[in-house]
Specification:
The protein has 358 residues and is α/β, with parallel strands linked by helices. The chain is 43% helix and 12% strand.
Length: 358
């Protein structure tokens, strides 16, 4: 087993791509061995410091024509739909800033009633009042939808939004970058090639993004490796991803509930988290998902390759729509959790610059 551990650690530290078979064989390893490989890579590449950000997720609308089968958030009835006003959004940003937030994540859906000028006005207003807040907002599907609706190219949309105040893109809408899977869980959403194209264009104009993966539904191990390889290969081309965040599908109140009645267990989460670290040799930051896993498993994830605890999430509505209990994390809770395993902890910004050590 030592030879196996040394093989994968060495490949990663030398920034060598795994072959598909080499990556797939990771699923056959015992979980403690997998964790040991990922943790050694994390230690050698990132050191022991664990970071987190103070942020707020503002869901500006729940009107979405995509109607993905994995989503419990979009309005099922017209009368249940909403669009937040500019004043409501600015009030939420103000509340977050007062609590120390440096990052605002705005995401909603494919709302055909919202023009690009609406987003420009919102972003510009946020920046005018809160110039030090990073607007880390809109997913690749939202950008692509806006481009198609406005008859513009993706680059023009991104440049206009950036000029208005958009700083970076979150990795939402990736789900699994396998079109076989996407045809089942999100047939009305952009395909994997289009998601990657939006990210590549964002990177080409100097806009950083994150990447995500939602697993634990209808995907296979092969689909997960396909997803990771696509992220890895785009990163090799652009270097624009700041972090990777894998998280588990929450099936309650979704159309997929009859097929997937329970979320993936913690062992599966830790397995995929570790494999993400091992495969993605060119992405420094791997983030745990306390939102879907809870604090105990998220803290354990710090020994399975992760070096970032994500955000405190002063607000979150999408996962909560599945019925999963939610409350924001407190700074002191994150600090205590990280220190409980003997690791140092620091507050960061969107670009992983350290703001404060604890």
């Amino acid at each position: 087993m030592k030879d196996t551990i040394d093989f994968y650690v060495s490949k990663n530290l030398k920034n060598c791509d795994l072959s598909f078979d080499e990556a797939l064989r990771l699923f056959e390893l015992p979980l403690p061995v997998l964790g040991k490989i990922a943790d050694e890579i994390r230690r050698r590449k990132c050191g022991d410091l664990v970071t987190f950000v103070i942020d707020r997720n503002i869901n500006y609308t729940n009107i979405c024509i995509s109607k993905c089968k994995f989503c419990a958030f979009y309005a099922k009835k017209e009368e249940d739909g909403y669009v937040l006003s500019k004043d409501e959004i600015l009030k939420k940003v103000e509340e977050a800033v007062k609590l120390g937030a440096t990052q605002i994540l705005m995401q909603g859906g494919m709302n055909p009633d919202l023009e690009i000028e609406w987003f420009e006005d919102i972003f510009r207003s946020i920046k005018e009042r809160f110039p030090n807040v990073a607007v880390h907002s809109l997913s690749a599907p939202e950008i692509k939808f806006l481009a198609k609706k406005e008859g513009m190219g993706v680059r023009e949309v991104l440049e206009r939004l950036r000029n208005a105040g958009l700083d970076s893109l979150p990795g939402g809408g990736a789900e699994i970058l396998s079109d076989r899977v996407r045809k089942i869980i999100s047939p009305n959403k952009i395909n994997s090639k289009e998601w990657l194209e939006v990210m590549e264009i964002a990177h080409s104009i100097g806009m950083k993004t994150t990447a995500t993966m939602m697993f634990g539904h209808v995907e296979t191990n092969e689909d997960i490796i396909e997803h990771l390889f696509k992220i890895r290969d785009l990163q090799a081309k652009t270097g624009g991803f700041t972090a990777f965040i894998p998280w588990t599908f929450q099936p309650n109140r979704t159309e997929l509930y009859e097929q997937v009645k329970e979320p993936a267990p913690p062992t599966r989460y830790l397995q995929v988290l570790a494999i993400s670290r091992i495969v993605l040799h060119n992405i420094r930051n791997i983030q745990v998902s306390w939102l879907t896993q809870g604090f105990e498993v998220a803290t354990l994830g710090l020994t399975f390759g992760a070096n970032d605890f994500g955000g405190v999430m002063l607000e979150e509505n999408v996962v909560r729509a599945t019925g999963k209990p939610f409350r924001p994390a407190r700074v002191e809770e994150i600090v205590k959790a990280v220190k409980s395993i003997g690791r140092p902890v620091a507050l960061r910004d969107t670009y992983y610059r350290i703001l404060r050590y604890f």
